[in-house]
Amino acid sequence: MFYMPAFKLRMRTSAALLAGAAGVTALGAGLMPSTASAATQSPQAIAAQVVPANQLASFNQIISHESSWNVHATNPSSGAYGLGQALPGSKMASAGADWKTNPKTQIKWAYDYMNSRYGSPNAAWSFWQTHHWY
């Protein structure tokens, strides 16, 4: 019989569920055990813990297009900053004082922004597809 430690089984199961729910296998690539700290997790893995599975693919599309998942992404024209390209970037301070460097803070802010402005990441992605901004 094949034995797999429980945490590896959870990782594989979580990655498979994430890939299936999001339709994007790249999100599962950075998945870490649930005991890993935010500092060791990829932004995509953090997003998978914050954003509901049925909204994750849309959230991923927006963040991929806006910042390529670069926490320090800065738009040279507008000055928009971070994963969700907040303008000004200091808006993200509402989600935490560590907004400049912490992907979890930026993800929480972007998710809240998508919900408050559009109703959900899915609705924000629909808007983005038409306008190429959100």
Automatic annotation (TrEMBL):
Signal peptide segment: 1-38
Keywords for this protein: Signal
Protein name: Transglycosylase SLT domain-containing protein
Source lineage: Bacteria, Bacillati, Actinomycetota, Actinomycetes, Kitasatosporales
Domain Transglycosylase SLT: residue ranges: 54-125
Database matches in InterPro entries: Lysozyme-like_dom_sf, Transglycosylase_SLT_dom_1
Organism expressing this protein natively: Kitasatospora arboriphila
